[in-house]
């Protein structure tokens, strides 16, 4: 009886592992399709950027990999390590510079400073 229990447990555990793996792969594919996740080292081409009819501000990580874009005049959400969130109004200056809450930033420096300070930047959810 003990061997049958071990066998059944191994089969159930194996099936559970396959189901969890399939769910993780499906979630990753969905995130890639929605633009939430970009495989490391893969950069989005300019033709893949949204066409807003205006200027677009590009937010990257400190390595220069595109995270997201927002139209000129939109907001980002800055979430601090303690959970506090602040809205940041963004103005386009040029391809590599933007004004965020009245402070002019070179976008690579902005990304680096946000990483150092532990601040998570995301597009503001406005609808």
Overall description:
This protein is α+β, with helices and mostly antiparallel strands. The protein has helices spanning 2-34, 107-117, and strands at 56-60, 66-71, 75-79, 85-94, 97-100, 103-106, 120-123. The strands form 2 sheets. Strands 6-5-4-3-7 form a 5-stranded antiparallel β-sheet, covered by helices on one side. It has a two-stranded antiparallel ribbon with strand order 1-2. Strand 5 (97-100) and strand 6 (103-106) form a beta hairpin. The radius of gyration is 21 Å and the shape is elongated. Residues 43-52 have low confidence and may be disordered.
Compact description:
This protein has 127 residues and is α+β, with helices and mostly antiparallel strands. The protein contains two helices and seven strands; from the N terminus they run αββββββαβ. The radius of gyration is 21 Å and the shape is elongated.
Order of helices and strands: HEEEEEEHE
Give the low-confidence spans.
Answer: 43-52
Alpha carbon gap, first and last residue: 60 Å
**How much helical structure, as a percent, in the residues?**
25-40%
């Amino acid at each position: 009886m003990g061997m049958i229990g071990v066998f059944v447990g191994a089969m159930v555990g194996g099936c559970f592992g396959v189901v969890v793996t399939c769910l993780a792969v499906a979630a990753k594919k969905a995130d890639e399709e929605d633009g939430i996740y970009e495989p490391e080292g893969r950069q989005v081409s300019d033709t893949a950027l949204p066409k807003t009819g205006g200027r677009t501000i590009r937010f990257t990580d400190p390595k220069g990999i595109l995270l997201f874009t927002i139209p000129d005049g939109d907001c980002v959400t800055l979430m601090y390590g303690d959970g506090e969130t602040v809205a940041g109004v963004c103005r386009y200056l040029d391809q590599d510079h933007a004004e965020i809450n009245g402070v002019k930033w070179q976008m690579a420096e902005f990304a680096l400073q946000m990483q150092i300070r532990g601040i998570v930047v995301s597009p503001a959810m406005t609808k």
